[in-house]
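hey so i finally got around to running the thing on that chain from the lab meeting. sorry it took forever, my laptop kept dying and i had to restart like 3 times. anyway pasting the input first so we r on the same page abt which one it is
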Amino acid sequence: MVERNQEIFHPITLEDRDWINKKLAEENLNACEYTFANNFIWAEVYHVQVGEIGYCGVIQYQEEGEVRYSFPFGNGDRKAAVQELLDICSTQGYPLRLYPVCEKQRQELIEWFPGKFEIDSDRADSDYVYTVEKLSTLRGKKLHGKRNHIARFMDDGDWKYEAMTEKNIDECRKMAKKWIKMRSEKWNEQMEQEMGALEKAFAQFYELELVGGVLYKSDKMVAFSIGERLNKDTFVVHFEKAYPDLQGAYPMINQQFVLHEAQEFAFVNREEDTGDLGIRKAKLSYYPDMLIKKYHALESSVVFACEQDRESITQIWKSCFGDSNEYIALYLSNRFETENMLVIYEDKKPVSMASMLPVQVTIDGQKRAARYVYAVATLPAYRGKGYASKIINYASKKYKEPLLLQPAQESLERYYTKLGFTKTFQESPCWLYHNSKAQIGYGQDTRKEDCAKSELRKADIEDWQQKQMNGTTISNLNGWEVTKATPAEYKKIRDQYFEKEGYVEWDEQAVAYAMMENEFCHGLTLKLTQNERTAVVMYRVEGKCLKIVETTLSEKELGALLGELLIYTNTTKAYAQNAGGMIRLPEKEKLWEFEEGYLNLTLA
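ok and heres what got predicted. didnt touch it at all, straight out
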């Protein structure tokens, strides 16, 4: 099969231009990598080779020491081509990696090879796409600043734009070298590689069918840009250089290049930002009309659940946790994404699963990206095969981030300890009782005890809760003005109150879902205001018991208003409990010796 690989692929040359362009034109792909010129000029950096499988074009390259392939393109048998690549990689002892994979191709992989590929995306890889009309006219209030910069550039009238030709390419080379010197303090290997690719673009400008434009100020070249046709309706910009100390040079070459060279197209693809925050800010400042998501596909036995898996996920969830279809649908509709639930397939369907929800945790004073492991489950008929541990171990290697979880019972705590988790997040069980004297006490779980029925009529309770749902101010609770908290308010108050070493911080989307899930479970989330002090309390009603899910009130403050809250909710006693949790740090990372972290809102 090694010989088969050598038969198929060869280093890219100019002789490959016509057949590759023909295959690319058959599909009209919109990712910036899908042009012959782009692959040719970067060939030395990525060891680019090309070949044909099943009448499809395929590009082979290397990145970070790994062999990768483009998704097969053209009107041939793309499924058979992917299978051929799988066979080649299997024989050579490494998994097949495909990139870039567009949305259409992602759907094809899921259909053709269910459960075979882990498919995910990186924000840094997304292409920025704008309408030609927007970049040409810069109309609108949002782009007012760009127009001002261009006006300053044009003030003296001593400027001109020219197409890039043989007459000015050498001058472009000289400008590029001067640009390098001006950026010497920021120089890195990636910039060195880009300059090598730029030189190949200059050297083979016409053979590669590239298009360029140059900008002059006071008869001196100050900017240039190079691009080409990407597909029938999109132009792609590969290079754009301007002197950074000249006001308006960048927006001016951006606009003029599109005005002169891209008017036959509807869109301009300005490629990705590679994760560079400066480039990201610059590209976002033009307010892209689209961000083209590009996926990585990795052959794997642990994959991300996709849209088509919802029925199987519901079956696993209901079988393992016993929740209603409505509750499961609530989660899947609001928190499930195609890149946050890992599954293992067997018999052509997911049989084991675990969600990996993004959070932040403060470790050694620094906020760290982490994943909360939620809803770990395997269908009973497929247990005993180590699927759950396989998913968790896979996630640890994939994300290289701390994994957090909250075991539902003691036996699971022992199980997760064997998987490398340690108890880190403090448990704080606190049972609160309300009796005829409105006293607060602590003890064991007595929720099943019979208690006296509240004297408040059910209609009054429903009226009070309806007012809460409508967000109206109601009669205060022991001097606190009460309104329904918004997710933004809850997050801000929560973060300020709990922030400390070991604090697990959820983003606003997660907080919003926690509040939604709480309401589904007969609860409310209140914002309390007294003088200049604000607090929150999230509670839910469990029969005659009131569960305080989370609060920023002190024990004394909670105790002072609990009596009224019990009456309003028609409950007879209340309890608060944080079950704590465990953490698994990435491999080769030093031990974090801490046992007083705060983990809550876990939906466990």
